[in-house]
Amino acid sequence: VPPSSDRLHDGAGRRRVCYVASRYPAVSHTFIMREALALRAGGTEVETVSVHRADGRELLARADELEAARTWSILPLDMKAFVRAHFRAVAAHPVAYGRALAEALGSAPPGWRGPLWQLFYFAEAIYLWAHADALKVRHLHAHLANVGADICWLACSFGRMAQPRAHWLWSFTMHGPTELYSTEKFNLARKVARADGVVCISEYTRSQLMYLSDAAHWAKLRVVHCGADLARYPYRPPRPADGGLSVLCVARLAPQKGLEILVRAIGVLAAGGTDVHLTIVGSGPLDSSLRRTVQSVGMAERVRFAGAVGQDEMAAYYERADVFCLPSFAEGLPVVLMEAMATGRPVVATRIMGVPELVEEGVSGFLVAPGSVDELVGGLGKLAASPDLRESFCRAGRLKVEQGFDAVRCAGQVAGVFDEMASAAKRPR
Questions:
Q1: In this structure, what DSSP letter does residue 213 have?
Q2: Distances (CA, A) of 47 to 6, 73, 409
Q3: pLDDT tens, 87-130?
Q4: Is 362 left (phi over 0), alpha (psi -120 to 50) or beta?
Q5: What proportions of the chain, in percent to the nearest 5, are helix, strand and coil?
Q6: What's the whole-model pTM score?
Q7: DSSP code for 128
Q8: Coil, strand or helix: which one is 20?
C-alpha cells in the first residue's frame, strides 16, 4: 500500500527531512552543508543531526558556526533525555522495541565486535527516533554509509513497527571510497536492501552497489552528483602568463590523497627548469611526514602548507592558482575539483573511480595514472608550457560544472528523489 503524502511533507505541503552525519558540520563534510542549505533555499525543511558533536576547531567560517548552533547532537549524551527516550519507547511500544533490538543484533557484521556496536547503534537510534518524532519529521537521511546510516536504519525500523500510521522512511547518500573497501564492516548490502532509497554520487558508486546488492534493489539506486556553489566560486579568467606555474591542491593530508607523489612531481619539474610553486590547503595525519618529504627533496621554498581553510577564504586560493592538482589513490567524486573547475582552473587528477565523470581528458584537464610521478609531471608540464591550453581547459571546466554539477540544481534533483521515494515506498516491512 503506497504511503500517504505526509510521509515526507507536513500539512502545509512542505517537504521535511532530517539529515544525519557522523560529525556535522566538519571541514571534510562541507558538501553536506552545501546540500542542506540549497534544499532549505528550495523550500525543504532540513533538520540536522550529528552523531558526534562538531569539533569547534573545524568551525572555520560563520556559516559553520550557525549550522553547528542549529544541529542536534547525539553524543555526548544528555543522559536524562536519553533515558526518557528509551523509557518512552519501552513503555509505549515494548514489542516494537524488542523486535527492533533483535533486528539490530541479527544484522550485525561478522566478528565479535559487530553485535556490541549494534547495541550502541540501537541505543542511539531510539534516541534519534524520539528526537525526530518530537519534530514530526518522518524521513531520516544519512550522508555517508557509516554510523549515521546504521542509526537511521534502526530508528526508522523501530518507528515503522511502533507507529505504522506515521509512515517512517529512511535513505542514505553513498559516497565512498572508504565504505567500498570494507563492504561487510559497513553492512552495505543490508543497508541497500533495507533503505527506501540510495543517492549515489557517481555512476561508479552506483555500479559498486549494484555489484553488492540483489537486482531487485537496483531501482532504489539513483545517481545525483554533489555540486559546487557557483555563486561562491564565480568564473575568473586565467592569470596572465608570467613564465611560472602556481599549483594548488586542496585535500586532507591523508594517505589516500597521494600528496607525496605530487611533492615529488613538483621537485622533478623544478629540477627541469620550470618555475613552479605548490600550495597545499588542508590538515591531517600526514602533515609532519609531508613536511619532511618537502625538506628531503629540497622543495621548502617551493611548497607552502596553508593548513585548514574555511569556505570564506577558499575562493581566493583557487583564483591565485594556475592549475589545480589532486593526485589521489582513491576518491568518490571530489567537490574540490568541481570548485576549481567552476573558478576556471584547469585540473590534473588521477584516472580513478568517479573522477572521469567530471574531468574530461584533454578537454577540461588531464587524467593520469594514480601513483605515477612521470604522468603527473607530464600533465603539469604541458599546462606550464601552454597558456592557451590552460585557457581552453578553464572555459570547458566551467561549462562542465554549470551543466552537471551546480549545487542548486543537484539539490533540486535530491529533493525530487526524496519525493519519488515517498511515492514508491511500501508499508513497513
A1: S
A2: 17, 11, 20
A3: 999 999 999 999 999 999 999 888 888 899 999 999 999 999 99
A4: left
A5: 50, 15, 30
A6: 0.92
A7: H
A8: strand
